[in-house]
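Comment on this:
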Amino acid sequence: MEDLQTFLSICLGVGLSAAVGFRIFVPLLCLSIASLTGQVHLDGSFAWVGTMPAMIAFAVATVVEIGAYYVPFIDNALDSIAVPLATVAGVFVTALVMTDVDPFWRWSLAIIAGGGIATSTQLATTKLRAMSSATTAGFGNPVLATVEAVVSSVLSFISVVWPFVALILVIVLLVLCWLFIYFVGKRVLKFFRRKTPSTPQTA
């Protein structure tokens, strides 16, 4: 039973860290609400996450973050700092929920799994936004921002309620995102290379 709880806590951490890559504060808000309602148990040193002031702060930060991605140029500027922030947040949320794991393994898994997965999903969304900006002149970015916010919210909820299902979803999402970027990205680059006029050679 203890091994199952440990496994589920790892799945929860992985799910939340992946959600962090789409929106940093949405998973933290979800985790705060889950702690307040007794769905998730947090370690004593992180119990403050499950308090009302923390929940309000995360809620405000979530609204600001989601809204900022609908502002032209601000969304791309946020992407420039989102990767290191998402990495740190991924480590943080993973360590938060792994309460029954030895500290060494807890932080090792948090850094490798939590930080690594958060970085992967954030890099994927950054590349997708860059492709959207290049192909639609930024007009497709609000649609992408909406998809990211929805995915982060749904994935955070599923991680809390069904951690194992969240783990499967994370694997599928990562594979689909990177396959899309690889195949579509190559076509986009080829298209723009064909459109770029060649420089005439001088005699």
User: Anything to note?
Assistant: Residues 34 and 40 are 5 Å apart (CA to CA). The first helix runs from residue 2 to 20. The helical segments are 2-20, 25-36, 52-68, 74-97, 103-136, 141-161, 163-195. The radius of gyration is 19 Å.
